[in-house]
Write a structure and sequence with these properties.
By secondary structure, the chain is mainly β. It is built from 1 helix and 15 strands. The protein has one helix at about 290-310; strands at about 5-10, 25, 30-35, 80, 130, 135-140, 150-160, 170, 180-195, 205-220, 230-240, 245-250, 250-255, 270, 275-280. Strands 2, 3, 5, 6, 7, 8, 9, 10, 11 and 12 form a 10-stranded mixed beta sheet that branches. A 5-stranded mixed beta sheet has the order 1-14-15-13-4, with no helix packed on it. β5 (about 130) and β6 form a beta hairpin. The longest helix has 21 residues, at about 290-310. The protein is globular.
Length: about 325
Amino acid sequence: MNAATLLFAPLFPVKTSTFRPVSLLKPNVFRSLNMTRPVSSRPDFRAWADDGDADGGGPDDYDMDEDDAEEVDNKKDFDVDYDTALAIAVAGHGGQDDIAMVHSKSFVSIHGWDSEKIVDYRINEDEFHKICLLDCDFFIRKPPDPDNDVYDFREMYVTPPDTDIYAIPKVLAPMPQKYIRCAQSDYGCYNVTEPPISAPRDPMYKSEREVLKVFLTKHYRNRRLGDPEFTLDFEEIYVIDSKTKSITRAKVVVTVPGGTDRDRKNDLLVVRDGGTSFKIIPPDERDDPTTVIEKEEWSKSRDDMEKHLSKLRDFNVSNWF
């Protein structure tokens, strides 16, 4: 495999011969992961899942070089959580990986501005990455680049869908003060509804896609997509939330031995709990889809049964053996 793999935990059973990153069936809802900027040369991001809270490999202590003591993009303001069996370290990047800054006459730094404050000017949306979510449109400045994947988090806006009322979004974690390359993916669902009985000639099903969150995953060392050493840095993921109209950095737990010197092309990322839990696991801890579905179904079935039995007794929790 030429690149790291992005994992989503399926929540509902599907009956298929192969497990692909497609929507998984639930009554009236389809969970999905959609890479919004498909490129033919992009490595295959396949969906798998872990077994919940499985721990990583054995201890693997390592020493940080002097150059690795500071994270250039975030200036020591955000640490990655490594598994307790591993040493705690901050991901380091060399200065040679920085992208040259380009002066723009229309650039307006929003650093220090109050969140949700409506600005009294309009922006040129062609100069921004426009990210459309269910409850809002998010704008992040787009420096000129042929790959169209460079983000400048120093200037961001949020608007109601398809309007030009620009406001400063909520920033819940320190954002990088330099250009970074990111791969964009979204976390959403399909709402499927049946036609009303009074309109039998309508299509049998109507599906509407709702994007609830968008993940911006940094390119490791800001390498271009066509670079032979290209891979994604799952330790640095920025999450845009449609409901709260905010952006933050994901708290990622790393259970892979090797620390910052490991081969990141073999990283497997598991996203669970509605896009709020992020965990990097070794490839050998990957579960097959059938096992994951069985575990998810068992947990759901047990909760449903417990809820039903609670109506028939005078105590809260059953004795499960």
